[in-house]
Amino acid sequence: MISASVGFQCPDCVRGGAGTGQPPGASRPRTVAGGTVVADPRLVTKILVVINLAVFIAVHVDDALLDRLVLVAAWPPASLPPDQGVAAGEWYRLVTSMFTHNAVWHIGFNMLGLWWLGGPLEAHLGRVRYLALYFLSGLVGSATAYAFAAPGVATLGASGAIFGLLGATAVLMRELDYDLRPVIGLLALNLLFTFTWRDISWQAHIGGLVGGFVIGYAMIHAPRERRALIQYGACALVLAIVLGVVLVRTAQLT
Fold it and tell me: Which is the catalytic residue, given 97, 137, 159, 201?
């Protein structure tokens, strides 16, 4: 037996609860989507903000870097088959464009949206599920822009992923029985800007919104006994659809 403040404990019990602060065998607290409750529920959101800011600074230090990171199907547009762009095999642009901004107001609005929406979602979903939601929403937005925008139009920004967070926020607030009017008003305002402001990729916004809503619904409404299967199965299905869209569009352009 091992001496403890409450008397004596057996060695196996001490090993089972060592460093957890919980009784042996006790399950760790879980979020509404099954994620682990952590001390800093905004850690991933902070990291994403830092990455976006770092890329923003980098593209202003190196002017040529911006052209290498934005989402463009064919660059220059007049050359088919293209020598640069996603259609030429530069699929990385589907991801790098999600972190690329070229104006202060652009990154400012997106980072405010990421902080306001991302923090509560990360706390309710857990880090892994939240990160999957963010990246897949952004990828759906990128794939939608790639599929429907003109080949030479450059798309950039975290807006697709932010719209995905907005869609998932609506699902979460409905599940928690919160007043949906604020999120509906925010969505309506953002859609108004999307379709009335010049040089905004409505394709990325709508694609990200739909992707975020679908993934958020799967994350939050998955039954507990099959939670992981449904959540990650939905993510895999969305990723497969993105891959299919990119392959079809690439075949059209080449």
Answer: 159
Could you give the angle at which helices 159-175 and 127-148 cross, rounded to 10 degrees? 130
- Is 205 tagged catalytic? yes
In this prediction, residue 11 has a pLDDT band, given cuts at 50, 70 and 90, of: low
Tell me the residue range of the domain where 147 lies: 32-253
Query: Does pLDDT of 75 surpass 60?
Result: yes
What is the pTM for the complete model shown? 0.85
SS3 call for 70: coil
- Same domain for 3 and 105, yes or no, is no
Per-residue pLDDT tens over the stretch 96-154: 999 999 899 999 999 999 999 999 999 999 999 999 999 999 999 999 999 998 888 88
- Residue 185 makes CB contacts below 8 A (sequence gap 6+) with none
- Asked if 103 and 1 sit in the same domain, the reply is no
- Report the domain count for the chain: 2
Active site residue 101: no
Q: Which two tokens stand for residue 78?
A: 């007049």
Question: CA-to-CA distance for 86 and 250, rounded, in angstroms?
Answer: 8
Set 101, 106, 124, 205: catalytic member: 205
> Residue 159: what residue type?
S
